[in-house]
Task: structure prediction
Amino acid sequence: MVQIPDRYQRAAVIGGTAWLPETLRVHARRTLLGTLQRRQARRANVVLIVHPKSGGTWLRVMLFRLFQRKYDLPARRVMKTDELQRYNQALPRFIVSNGHYSYEAAVREVLTNESADDKQLIFLARHPCDIAVSWHLQFTRRISAAKRELILHELHRPIDYKTIPLWEFVMHPELGLPGLIDYHNQWAEFFAGRSNGLIVRYEDLRADTRATLQRITARLGEAFSSAELDEAIEFASFDNLRRLEEANYFHNASLRLQDRGDLSRYKVRRGKVGGFRDDFEPAQADEMEALVRAHLSPILGYSGPVTPGALAASQRA
Result:
């Protein structure tokens, strides 16, 4: 039986519902895309949970480069779900998801309510303050209109994405720093103590890329030489990824250049650890760090008590 690639199924849902009135369109897409996500999560061998702007693209490119060179795969489509297995049935089937927003919450439902013991689970964490700025740019300028519409419809505190200032976005209880902290706490709690779960911090991946990447590939049951790891790291370097984006090298729509004249709309921005302080007044940056210290789970190593859900709930109230 011929299996339609996951990306085509998603495109069919988006295109096939485009003519509907907004309320019906949102409901249909949330339902149909949620069903697709559940099916992908159940079939996946590897689940990579990563919030937008946490280094997920960088990690995916490195992993794909390793598999692509080792197994002689086509070079220009980075895996997100079934791409590797469609090229080679012996390779793992992935699902890369935030597991949280809109229909992607279906991934968390599957992992929580059904057995996930047959999967390798990886959570890529990043300091929430550093996510916040890039997430604002991603949400207001790069994210697809269809996905943004779905997220906007589920917010308890609506926003105007076209005009919302950076600080107001960062303090928003669901999309901003309170929501990011809760997001990390919930996934840290889920991963804690799981023998098939691996938490990787973006900061560690930056500090010692080869060793951290080797931990991930070992968890996937793959062995790569130091030379192979170094080549993949070089291929996914900031400068090279920026060049590839400008050349529209990758076939993934999410990795393509949108506006050459607007640096804020580049997928590859800067990836600087602690870079959030460049975008705020010192008092604002201090307030952000205080929220993280007070509320972020110590499981992640950024320091702070476990309070999943409490901060966003209090902010909404």
Residues 262-267, 306-317 have pLDDT under 50 and may be disordered.
